[in-house]
Task: structure prediction
Amino acid sequence: MLSSHDLNLMTSYLKSKGYTKEQIASMNDKQILRDYEEKTKEFLYQAKKQIDIIPQTPKEVQRKDLQHLQIPLELAQIIEQDNVKIYEMLDEYIENYSVREVAEVIFMKTKHTKIAKLEKMMRIKRSQLQELWLEALERNLSTLPAEEAQTLLKFYYDKKDNLIELKDIYTRSNDKKYLSQIYEIACMKLHIVRDYMPKELEETYRVYYDNSQEKIELIKQILNISNGFEKGYLLGLSMHDLGELLIQIQEELQKKKKEEEEVKMYFDEFKDALHSTKEEMFLEVCIDAASALSRERFQELCANLAKKFKTFRHRFTDIARHHKEISNLQIVF
Result:
C-alpha cells in the first residue's frame, strides 16, 4: 500500500507529464504506480541516452580494417632512426589499430628495430592519449552537477581502451553548445530524480554516492562501534542499507548496555539479600530478576553469583523447586 507521501510524489510527477486532475482522480493507487513507473523509466532512459556522449557510428566502421593499415616506408625509416618519433608521428595509427598491429607493420618495414621496444613505446603513447583526453573530459564536464559528472566520468573511464570512442567523446565535449545541452538535460534529470523519485536517487547516481563524504562517515561510524563487518562489505552497501545497519547496531548496543546495567543492579540486590536474614527478600529478587532478564543473561548472573557466594546455589535451588511455573528459574548449574 502506498503512503500518502509516495502518492503525492507520484501524482505531482504525472501532472508534470501532462496528466489532468480528472485523469488522476479516476485512477486507483495501482494504476498511478504503474503509470508513474512507466513514465520515470522512460524519462531516465531518454535522459541517459542524451547525456552519454557515445558515438552513433555502426560497430563495423568504428575500427578501421587491418588491410587498410598502410604506414609509409619513409615514416617507418624515420622511426627506425629515432624511435622517439613514435610519440610524435603515430597518433592516427594508434587511435585506429592495436599496438601489436602497428608495431608489426613498422617492424616489417625496418631492419634494426625491435618489436618489443616498439610495442612498449606505443603503449606509453596510447596511455598518454588516454590521460590527455580523460583529463580534458573531466575539465569539460566540471560544470555539470557533481552527481552527473562523476557518473559520466566513471562511464568514460570504463571505455578508455576504445580510443576511437574515447576520442569521439573528447571531441564532443569540446563543443560548448553541445555541453550546454548536456548541462540542461543533466540538471533536469537530477531535479526529477531528487524531487519525484527519491528512492531511485542513490541507485541512479551510485558512483557519486559511493564516494560521498556522507557514505564514508556512515561506514566510519559503523566500524567504530562494531568489528563484525569488513570495510569492503560495507562499501558495497547502499547508504540506505548502511543507515539501517547503523541504527540496528546502535539499538543492539543500547540493549546490551541496558542489560549489563540491569545485571549489575540485580547482582548487588542478590548480594544484599544473601546477607539478609529475611528470606522473602531473596525470593523477591529471584522473581524480579528472572522476569526482567533474558534467560541467557539470567543464567550468566546466577553462575557468577554461585561462584562468588557459597550459599547462593542452595538457596536459589530451593526457591526454583517451589516456583516451577517460572521457567527462567529452572536452571541447571
Remarks:
- Confidence is low (pLDDT under 50) at residues 55-69.
- Residues 239-274 form the longest helix (36 residues).
- The CA atoms of residues 80 and 113 lie 6 Å apart.
- Residues 213-251 form one domain.
